[in-house]
Amino acid sequence: MASGKPAARIDTSRPHPARIYDFLLGGKDNYPVDQAVAERLPVEARNGAAANRAFMRRGIEWTARAGVDQFLDVGTGIPTEPNLHQIAQDVDPTCRIVYVDNDPIVLRHAEALLVSRPEGRTAYVQADVLDPEAILEQARRTLDFGRPVALSLIALLHFVPDGRDPYGIVRTLLAPLVPGSCLILSHLSMDLLTPEQDRTEEYRTAGIDLRPRTYAEVLRFFDGLDLVEPGLVPCWHKDSPRPADADLPGAQSGYAGVGFVR
């Protein structure tokens, strides 16, 4: 496994989205400051986190079975089995994966847990989605951009405010990807939640920018791509039964989709 930068100091005085997400998934790699935010969230937040993780598994497995064998996962989060490389390499052991995150605790665990199968390769890059050019530069050390790459942006872009140009970031990350590449994306939305279920302010009070987006706003990330059926939906699944937990409260707290580069 390769790594981008040496580990920075872990700041336990401020909550971090990756650690809050870890807590919601039942993980233990979080701190009281993260737990304090997560415990103020309703049960819908836990169901939404679990549903989002399940989408990641379905989307990555389907994409690997469709023949894509390279993955660029930006906003990896704290490792939770099965990790993306395990899912992809179970389909094709030669898959190459580059993980990207900006939280030092993710790097600390990545070095221990994100181990590739011998036939493939797994790398970790310590970088921020706000610097997509740096991500691409380091990803080229592992991925062959002359062949299709799946860009995975799972539950990430709702942490990028409008003023930081999230659509421009996605365009930059997609720009070097050849036809046959794809975008795998999920994004928080309040479209299907009640005002009582909206806890956006809990994040903002904790100093975390959170920008839920509408269906039309999320769909813009797929501009110029060919969406895979069933399109951009709250519970994406392809060539598999509807998930049993799809109708739990909060499980449909966002939109997800897969789109291919023409």
Automatic annotation (TrEMBL):
The keyword Transcription does not apply. Signal peptide: none annotated. One of its GO terms (molecular function) is methyltransferase activity. InterPro entries: SAM-dependent_MTases_sf, SAM_dep_MeTrfase_SAV2177_type. Keywords: Methyltransferase, Transferase. GO terms for biological process: methylation. It comes from the Bacteria. This is SAM-dependent methyltransferase. It comes from Streptomyces tremellae.
